[in-house]
Amino acid sequence: MVCSSTRPHSYAWWLVLGLVGLDCFSTLGYLPTIAAEGAAERAPLAAVAVSLLILFAALPVYLYVIGRSPHGRGATGLLEKHLSGWSGKLFILLLLGFVATDFVMTRTLSTADASTHLLANPYAESGVKWLLDCKDAVHFALPFWLQGEGTDRFFAWWNEQLMVTVILMVLGFALYFFLLRSFTRSFLWAAAVIVAVFLLVNGMVIGSCLVYLARHPQYMTNWIELIGFASLNQSPLDLFLDFVGLAIKSLPALALGLSGFELSMTVAPLVRGWPGDDPEQPRGRIRNMRKLLIVTAIFMSVLVPTSVASVKFLVPPAKLEAGGIARHRALAYLAHGGTLQPPGRRFGTDMPSEESKAFEAPFREDEEMLPPPKENPNKEDGEQPEEKAAPTQKMAPARGADLNPLFGPAFGTLYDVSAALILFLAGASVTISLRDLLPQYLARYGMEMHWAQRIGVLLHLFNVIVLLVVLAFHASVSQQQGAYATSVLVLLAGAALAALIDLRTRWRRYFFRPLVTAPLVLVCMIFLLMATGVCYDNPAGLVIALLFVFVLFISAGISRWMRSTELRYYGFAFADEGSAIRWEQIRRLEFQVLVPHRPDDRTLAEKEAEIRAQHRLGPDVPIIFIEAELGDPSDFQHQPLMQIVQEDGREIIRVS
Fold it and tell me: Which of 282, 293, 485, 587 is 20 to 30 A from 478, comparing alpha carbons?
């Protein structure tokens, strides 16, 4: 039950969309590079497949989940209704471990990419030089006995990427601590403005790229030939099957395009519903949250494939490699007016075929492109061409300014600032909801967290973990992407499983139930297979999640043992209003006779006579029988359900 005294302030759904957009849309900063690196020439296909998964898999699942769990707990809250016992608790605990991993990796990877955008900006060179000079000054200022090879390696390990990321992390700690203490509407407006500016500049970059590609169809025709779709001997069915096969093989590389859905569930209490909403089932809030999810999904389903295609077609592959200026900031590279990939056979591969090597010289950015030979416009039909063509002037390779005259250092800096801000604030939605949601979960597992909530221990604990993860991965976006993708896919599979279990419980018709649940089974299997593939290649996400589970399990076990003698329950819940009224009357009786009763062969009249004889109770003293039914022993805190009924003229209190 939602307590009105602790209910947070609510806001319009389109304003909360800015908060959700910090998590979802920020992936555009690094996703195109990850896609181009992981899926190679199949990246556009994988991006289209991800868009289809967003619209027809993730979105329907979470539209259902928010309708059944509208209080910010998401899929884990829905699963709690159906999974009982210790096995259910362990499964929920495992999902909570992946939720924590998702939150931590959102913060660490996004902040690392924010520093990547800042460091690559030409106007930041002086600041980077000052930072490196400060590091060298500290290094040389150490006493002689601290100098040595180990010290040199330590300071060399702290490169500019790691230093800027740690600085941004510390600033983020202060910001989130302030938000938890005084969250206001102003922050929502700030988030909405940042997201709007980021979407605007991305729309300009991606839109300009699409117009340029439409004017140069060679990119598309060469790509189709490269991936083998240009064969005239294939039937449409074979082409479609090849398309699906290539897309499925490349899906894990773009798993991060599906991120943000589970974390968006945590902001549900912030969404304003209708004035007369039922606190248990707020239909207005559910409807507005569904609007928010639909708008988010539409944006992502459009931006993911268009951004990946723009980067894969137009950014030179060498720029996306390790150490390349466009790595994990490919759209920013285009916004700065970087050199474009020529529309030749070199597209899509860093290793040209032998045929390409024989007919094409390697392309370098410092070289000028020769245009194709032009025919003599004055030549008559049948006339032989001249033996010697006039020398043609060399043409410089196309640059970002050819996409849009606005692209250059100024516009690129605007892009970098907007990208750094949205990446810096990614994870804010979970941080804001952390104070209210996590203690509710942990209290049911035996951990009393009200003291931690008051002094901000949870926030400080997560900040320490975030900082340790940044140091462990050396603030590298590439090293963190596997762990992030694993947590995202596991949570998506968990949401599909929660919807499947809930639907099977509610839909009792034998004939129609398989028709309704079969798509959910398929969606769950797809996400599980993708998670398995990502985890096989990079088990870091599984390791981090299991560490969270281990810490929570040990802490909960110790807390339950220390508090095992406490009387702990939320109070009684009543089956009907009559039971609540009668219980208040019983409480006010001067002399109460409550007798435990276990149903057996004897009647209530026989048991009442026996009790009166043993305890010498007169006929004017009412005897009330109590029947208790054991519920889930794994629940640490309970709210027993009470019902007071009449049977054979005698009152029975049934507690379950």
Answer: 293
Q: Are 221 and 345 in contact (CB under 8 A)?
A: no
Rounded to the nearest 5°, which phi and psi values hold at 167?
-60, -45
Q: What is the pLDDT of residues 172-215, one digit of tens each?
A: 888 877 766 656 778 889 999 999 999 999 999 999 999 999 99
Strands 641-647 and 650-655: antiparallel
Determine the 3-state secondary structure of 383 from DSSP.
Answer: coil
Do 504 and 650 lie in one domain? The reply is no
Instruction: Give residue-wise pLDDT tens across range 50-81.
Output: 999 999 999 999 999 999 999 888 898 899 88
The pLDDT value recorded for residue 61 is 95
Spatial distance between the Cα atoms of 340 and 518, rounded to a whole number of angstroms: 46
Longest dimension (CA), the chain: 131
Tokens of 637: 């805190």
Contact 537, 482 (CB under 8 A): yes
* pLDDT of residue 163 exceeding 90: yes
Q: Taking the model in full, what pTM does it have? A: 0.82
CA distances from 241 to 225, 245, 247, 378, 560 (A): 17, 6, 10, 49, 55
- Asked if the structure places residue 432 within a domain, the reply is yes
Is there a domain that residue 1 lies in?
no
CA distance 17 to 218: 39
